[in-house]
Amino acid sequence: MKLLTLVAVAAILSACSQLPDLQSGYAPYDPDAPQGTTRYSPVLAGTVNHTPVGPSSWLETNERVAPKAGAR
């Protein structure tokens, strides 16, 4: 009976204790917490225009991609 009383008293006293603070980092409600910086970045930044173009002369294209004189 003494053991049951001891367990009951221990359970009641443990219910009165405060839970540990398990928060890591800053609290969202803390006004002194540092704020991250945000930077505007346009959605189309760095895109390349790929509009269709007309056909080019095959002679000019062949000369541009052909090996240069003296090149191996």
Characterize the structure shown.
- The protein is mostly helical.
- It is 31% helix and 0% strand.
- It contains two helices and no strands.
- The chain has helices spanning 2-15, 58-65.
- It is rod-shaped, with a radius of gyration of 37 Å.
- The model has no long low-confidence stretch (mean pLDDT 85).
Provide the low-confidence segments as ranges: none
- The coarse silhouette is rod-shaped
What distance lies between the first and last C-alpha atoms, to the nearest angstrom? 101 Å
- The level of helicity is 25-40%
Please report the number of helical segments: 2
Arithmetic mean of pLDDT: 85
Helix-strand topology string? HH
What is the number of beta strands?
A: 0
Cα gyration radius (Å)? 37 Å
* Proportion of strand residues: under 5%
Q: Tell me about the biggest sheet?
A: none
> Could you say which structural class the secondary elements and strand pairing correspond to?
mainly alpha
